[in-house]
Amino acid sequence: MMTSVMNRIIHQEITVSYQYPVVFTRDVFNPANTRLYETLHDAVEQHSSPSMLVFVDDGVAVTHPGLVDSIARYMRHHLPAVTLCSSPVIIPGGESIKSNRPAIEKLLEKMADARLDRHSYVMAIGGGAVLDAVGYAASLVHRGVRLIRVPTTVLSQNDAGVGVKTAINDVAGKNFLGTFAPPFAVINDADFLKSLPDETWRGGIAEAFKVALIKDAVFFEWLCASARLLSDRDESVMEELVFRCADLHLKHIRQGGDPFEMGQARPLDFGHWSAHQLEVMTEFEVGHGQAVAIGIMLDTGLLNNEDADRLFGGLSTSGFSLWHDALEQRDPSGRLSILAGIEKFREHLGGRLCVTMPSGLGSSCELHALDEAWVQQAIKELRERTATVHS
Ligand SMILES: NC(=O)c1ccc[n+]([C@@H]2O[C@H](COP(=O)([O-])OP(=O)(O)OC[C@H]3O[C@@H](n4cnc5c(N)ncnc54)[C@H](O)[C@@H]3O)[C@@H](O)[C@H]2O)c1
Ligand SMILES: [Zn+2]
Fold first, then answer.
1. How much distance in Å is there from the Cα of 204 to the middle of ligand 2?
2. Which residue, judged by its Cα, is nearest atom 3 of ligand 1?
């Protein structure tokens, strides 16, 4: 007699170990540099003639006019088995590409025209926005093709480009659409940083303060001591910052126990509920790094005054302006507009709010409620701090 299958459960469990190198180098497409070759050659050997489609941020293409030719030359010299689908595709850099559905459709069309298959590679060279947009499209094509990220800004080398997430913006909010898609490899080439405008050079410094403050007091001290050199664009100090910050970020993803963010806590999003809202409120006139510098200052309510002053001093000396009038903007009901960022963050987390706050240098705790009065007080204090500096 057949037994009913009703109410039976098969407990499926899959364990996937995923590795990817994050390589620190210079002048990556110089034929004398074998890092990219070493990163790719084993995988390339396993599949005959894999294809590769390269996308380049226009801000990089303009400031590195020889780049497109050097990529082709490098591939011919070191990896002749890889077929470059076309000449590298230059795409708009900055937040506009993430906020523009037709632009994302175009990326997908380019990938379709290139007839990428499951063994193909997509290489994205650019800032965090380009890496997010190309990474998002690449993670959809054939359910995900191998992505090589070549981040070209400080923020993308020490934060956005080394992790496992992609995203684009939508009317429903910043990063509303996105995927978890670990890259095949990340190549951090310090030489790209030389051509950054000052504001973009500075952007990633805020992310370094963010992660140092909650995880590594020694790194925090080092950042404060290095702030002047960073604002003077000392390249070797910046290289050290990028390495240490990327290392902390990668350790968190590796050891934090929640690489795909199934739980509530998001320590690396410290300062981001208000930062994302400030970016949106100013229509991205305030860039991500600048917004994060302000955002982390707003969430220092549990620090003692002396530590909050040190953070303020470190960020200011690094060149950040820590005030924006949008912080005092009110919606038609008279409520501070920035507070909408709390609801969006809660929605993104899925119900229960969980905001990371530094509780001392190198340590943090999670709060499950953010009082409006508390945020108002934080804004008031930030205004007073900035006023004192400028008076
Ligand atoms: N996926 C993630 O985990 C993650 C994490 C943090 C931030 N992000 C995202 O990263 C984005 C911010 O990235 P960003 O700070 O790198 O800025 P960005 O990508 O917006 O680039 C800023 C500007 O710099 C230009 N540029 C890039 N590299 C250059 C170079 N070497 N020389 C000259 N100009 C160059 C770009 O064309 C652009 O105009 C945001 O959209 C943010 O949401 C993603
Ligand atoms: Zn960030």
1. 8
2. 160
